[in-house]
Amino acid sequence: MSDNWVDDPAQSPALGETWYPSRWGADDQCGAGNLLGPHKVKEALSLVNRHEIVRLGHEYDAKIPLAPGRIFGLRMPGGPTGGPYGSRSKTVWNDEFLTTEIGQIGTHMDALGHLGRQIGDKADHGNIRFYNGTPLSDIWSPYGLVRLGIENAPIFFTPGLLLDVQGLKGRVMDPGEEITPADLRACLQRQGLNEEVFAPGDAVLIRTGHGSRFRTEAATFYDGAPGLGLAAAEWLATKQPCVVGADNFAVDVVPPIDPDVFHPVHQHLIMKHGIYLHEGMSLDALATIERWRFAYIFAPLPIVGATGSPGAPFALL
Question: In this predicted structure, what is the pLDDT of residue 120?
């Protein structure tokens, strides 16, 4: 396929006619991570005054919500696994074996190579495009992504902003309930903030209330969720965040508002703008103390070729 092709916006309203190359060049693999740097660390540290840490992620075990077909299995070979070694110390140890979709389970961040779009015959990997217009034929291998893997993401140390839509509504939002730009602007007003609070390279986290179902409704957690609609994603993209996170499993509202447009927020933020999505977050603790601004810190596991990363994001207050 020619690199001069023009996508049909009627088929994917999340992308538009010309959505690549990215602003950072045709070979870029870091996306909105390029907005980070020492200046963002300095901005983040300016928000720290209590010297407290708040976890923004859930624990991992076999009882967490699992998307259909995914697994989480931890096994310990032997008891103990090894030893004893040393005639006097008789040292022993325990190891574990973990089987899971390492980048797409529990609290996790999507790599830029996670989600794309088919624009022609699916048998032709050149017809399936990802961030920066990169064809699947250039990134896929049976041993991991050749390009756009999570190892290209930076370490995130940047100002964070919590938009508490659950607090705005006064209730846990319903599955399939869309968050609009008006909702996000109303959150700012309720929280005593204005749009000047946004700066390029910030992390924006959205609390829907779906995170409260993470343990209590694990079996149905993936059946549907409140989340951002495309209009809200477009509005947020103009603020140039490096990360958009949420306490649901997709950031997108599920099921989609238009059944013919699946995960438009993913397409718009990841593919068009190179913005990382942080899913399955735990945001209740921040909302309880009404801490809307903080230092957001996350170091993705640099697993070469992975489609995402689990881990323990946290807020430094």
Answer: 74
Domains of the chain: 31-59+105-316 (3.50.30.50)
Whether 104 contacts 301, CB under 8 Å? no
pLDDT in tens, 112-167: 999 999 987 777 888 899 999 999 999 999 999 999 999 999 999 999 999 999 99
* Single-letter amino acid code for the residue at 238: T
How far is it, in rounded angstroms, from Cα 276 to Cα 114?
A: 10
- Token pair in block for residue 199: 């700066």
Q: What share of the chain is helix, strand, coil (3-state, %, to 5)?
A: 25, 20, 55
Angstrom distance (rounded) from CA 205 to CA 160: 7
Helix (H) or strand (E) holding 90: none
Q: Amino acid letter at 62? A: A
Alpha carbon separation from 146 to 85, 104, 116, 131, 138 (Å, rounded): 41, 18, 15, 13, 7
Burial pattern 96-107, b for ≥16 Cβ within 10 A else e, equals eeeebbbbbbbb
The pLDDT tens digits of the residues spanning 75-86 come to 999 999 999 999
Amino acid at 117: R
DSSP 177: P
Let me know: does 33 contact 154? Beta carbons within 8 Å.
Answer: yes
CA atoms lying within 13 Å on the CB side of residue 159? 19
Determine contact, residues 64/104, Cβ cutoff 8 Å: no
